[in-house]
Amino acid sequence: MNIAVLIKHVPVSNDVTVDPVTHALVRASSEGMINPADLNAIEEALVLKEKTNGHVTVFTMGPPDAEKSLRDAMAMGCDDSCLITDRCIAGGDTIATAKVLAKSIRRYGDFDLIMGGALSSDGATGQVGAMVAEYMDIPHISEIHKLDYINGKVETIKKYQGRNFTIQAELPALVTVCFGANSPRLATLRTKRAAKSKPMEIYTNAELGMPVDEIGLAGSPTAVIDSFAPESKRRAKMITGSPEEAAKEIKALIDKEEGKE
Amino acid sequence: MEKKRIGIIGGGISGTCLGYHLSLYDNAEVIVFEKDTIGGASTAKSAGTVCLFDDSLNNRYWDVRLYGFESYLKMEEEEKGSAGFDKTGTLVVATDEKVEAVIKTGIALTKAAGYTGEYITDKNRIKEILPDISTENILGAGYTQDDGYFDGTMISNTYAKKLQKNGGTLKTGVKVTDVKVENNGIKGLATSDGEEYEFDYVVDCTGPWSKFTGDLVGLEVPLWHTKAEAFFLSPPGKKLDYTFPVLKYPAFYALRAGDNIFICKSHLSMDLNNPMHAGQWDPDKLPATGGTDDYFIDFLLDQLEMRVPGIVDSGLVSSWLSYRAEPKDFLPILGETPIDGYILATGYGGNGVIEAPAASRDLAKLIMRGESTPLLEDWAFKRLLP
Hints:
The complex is a heterodimer of chains A (about 260) and B (about 375).
Chain A: E1 2-7, E2 9-11, E3 16-18, E4 25-27, E5 32-34, H1 36-52, E6 55-61, H2 67-76, E7 80-84, H3 94-108, E8 113-117, H4 128-136, E9 140-150, E10 153-160, E11 163-170, E12 173-177, H5 189-195, E13 200-203, H6 205-208, H7 243-257
Parallel strand pairs in A: 1-6, 1-8, 6-7, 7-13, 8-12, 9-12
Antiparallel strand pairs in A: 2-5, 3-4, 9-10, 10-11
Helix pairs in contact in A: 2-5, 3-4
Chain B: E1 4-9, H1 13-23, E2 28-34, E3 49-50, H2 62-78, E4 90-94, H3 97-112, E5 118-120, H4 123-129, E6 140-144, E7 148-149, H5 152-165, E8 169-172, E9 176-182, E10 185-191, E11 196-198, E12 201-204, H6 210-215, E13 224-234, E14 246-248, E15 252-257, E16 260-265, E17 278-279, H7 294-307, E18 315-326, E19 333-336, E20 342-346, H8 352-369, H9 374-378
Parallel strand pairs in B: 1-2, 1-12, 2-8, 4-14, 12-20
Antiparallel strand pairs in B: 3-7, 4-6, 5-6, 9-10, 10-11, 13-16, 13-17, 13-18, 14-15, 15-16, 19-20
């Protein structure tokens, strides 16, 4: 099976603020990592690769330093990668981003299955996966928890309102995987070193040839017009007393949270 | 009795340990200033190994090592967990005759102090202690069950609590913005919250920040940053089924961290002339995690394949980069400077947890009684002057 995984290079730090004028995310640290839910997508892809003797290509769209996330994905076991980077695609909304991703995937090759994380830890729209599928005119299943390959079809489990739904799709298809759906494997020193020499193609708009008014900020029909921090009713509770008393109180709070009380 | 007012800049292991030792004197008025949290910066990234014999500190200063070790054991006796002691023992591997001689001397000193220690040449016995090790191309190994590693952050916080109990003051979340000097003598300092303080002594305990702290008084502190790059590895079986001791080689060291293994390049293997190893950087720009260089992966892979092949296929859980601050001879800078009342307790490099207790004991004596000690003479600022 030929599998593509779409990942996002997101900031490591939680210290993200919103620019009051542009409403864009301002990241305090330049250090980036693979979006956590994308790690779950990679893990599902690698399991399928092992089962079908397949091949996994990982894609990301972002600044040049997003190469780090591609190398990390290849250290986990992905075979090759594609970095889509160009100033003219920066600042795009989910539609403009999905268009570029769909074009890049088509240009790269034929894939049986395209996967991605259900949500990004920074933008968290959850829209890009489904939009890529629409632009590629293939079926998609979003926010899945389990995935299998049976009789040439992909079979997934999706949880919705406390129930499990088993959903099948013909291939080619696109699925997005929920954060926590599995335990992503760890890279090792050996696979880290090997990943440095795995193939990575770089696409700019010179390769993609997309009209500049259809991509990036210029090609984005949506704009963030306001942003605000959600009001949280959760408050920290200080627990005092001896270690034994504190442990007892913490246990009671956990039980209450789990509905055991 | 005339009080001596002492301001300490930095609330890591150096500052809190010195603050505590000063607070033992009735006539000391001590304030420790920490811009963030106690023991939360480079101290928190320390492995905290205080081994009875290894090459981290020359055997000439073995009493420094012992004083540190026993200070923390006493801390643990007073309140279990207050120094974060994990008694895993230590295995120090002899890769050549020079290292072997250092280990053997260390073992003799260890035994003389009443602790256990043995030099093992039986390779089966070495593999019993650490099954994942390769015993090829080694001469033997020194082993003691009595030591292990501590938690620098826990220790700093325990010292901070003891300092407060003795009447000292902690100011956290405030940055020292100015150090007042008049007629080449210390007058006091100012902080980011707009407060001003008068002091007879100001002590720089800022470690990797000392270059910037020195700028406040126009003093060039001859420190370099060496990179402490560390990985947390998850062993192939996901769980160690034996007590992984602190493992010391000349080029790297490892210790257990829960079910993971912490592994780091040793500071004495750093080359100050290699820009990949050393430089002068801004510690405030260090990321909380990550930041390690590719060369470190290559280095570690080569070392583990050769030395500890049983863990070479461990998963990489996380990594971080820290800066050690050290002068060219890799020893700390303690004591007086050309500015009257401006004292240095910095440059511990990777050895702050080991060296801070003995250094603080002697520095407190210098500040409170004007008495120097052989250790302060050896580690004086003036040794680094041209």
